[in-house]
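Case study.
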Amino acid sequence: MTELVAGARLPERTFGPVTATDIVRYQGASGDMNPIHHDDEFARAAGFPGSISAGMLGAGWLAAYCTEYLGEETVRRFRTRFSEVVYRGDRLTASAEVVRRFEQDREPRVELAIQLRKDDGCVVTSGTAEFVVR
Amino acid sequence: MTVMAIERGKIREFATATGAARPAYMDDQQAPVPPTFLATVVFWRPIGETLRSPQVLRACAEAGVTADLASLLSLEQEYVYHGPLPRAGETLRTAERLSDVALKHNRAGRAMVVVRFTVSFHDERGDLRAECHYTSAYVNRERP
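After joint prediction, the assembly is written out as follows.
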C-alpha cells in the first residue's frame, strides 16, 4: 500500500480499449440514454466523426480506481471535469497523486488529483477526490 | 421533491458497469453507493429541468446558441457526501436548483452558455446526505 503523503502516486490502472459494450452497459446502468454515446448517425449530425463515450463512464472508472485503494466507505468528495472526448478503441489509464492531508468535520482526509489519459498522453478527464483516511 | 430508493441490484449493476465489481459492492446487502452512483437518480426524476428554465433559454437565445440535446455537453460533475455514505435499502429525497448561467467561449472561440445546477439528496430524517453539482454547456458545433 502506497503511503498517502503529499506527492505520492497510486499505482496506475488501465481501462479499455473502450468497446461499444462498455458504453451501452454504462448507459443502461446509469440511465443516461443520450444517443450521442451509441448512435453514430446522431453523433455525426452533432459534428463528431462517430459516437463518443460517456464522460461519466470515465468518471465511474476513476471512482473504481480510487475506491480500490482507499475503500468503498470513505469517499467525501469526487469531482471530474471532462476535457476531451473518448472514442471506441481508446485505451485509458487512471492515475492519482496525493495533493494534501487535512482535517475536515473532525475527520482526517486525503485529497487526490486524479486523471484519465489516452495512450498518446491526452488527458480526457481530470479532477479531485477526497477520502477519509484512518 | 422526488423519492429515490437506493437499491442493492442497481448498485451491483452500476459497480459492474464501472469496473468495480468487488465484494463490498456486490455482496453486501447494505452496500454503500459508488462515488458517482447518484447519477442514477435519472431513473427517479428527470435531471436538468433547470437546463430548460426560462433564464437558460433566454441566455441561449441572446447568445445565438441552440438549446437542444445535440448541443449540450457535460463539462463537470462533482459529488459531495455529508455524513455516512448512502447505502442499499435507504430512501433519499431529491431536489434540483439552478446555481448559475454564464456566457463563455470555448477553445475554438465559439459561444457557449454554461449552466451550473445542483441536485441535493436528503434522507428520511431530513439530513442532507449528498449533493451533485453539475456544470453543463450548450455550445454550437460546426455541422459537417
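Observations recorded in class. Chain B is about 15% helix and 35% strand. The interface with chain A takes residues 10, 13-20, 22, 24-25, 31-32, 34-36, 39-40, 42-43, 69-71, 73-81, 85, 141-144 of chain B (CB under 8 Å). We will return to this complex in the next lecture.
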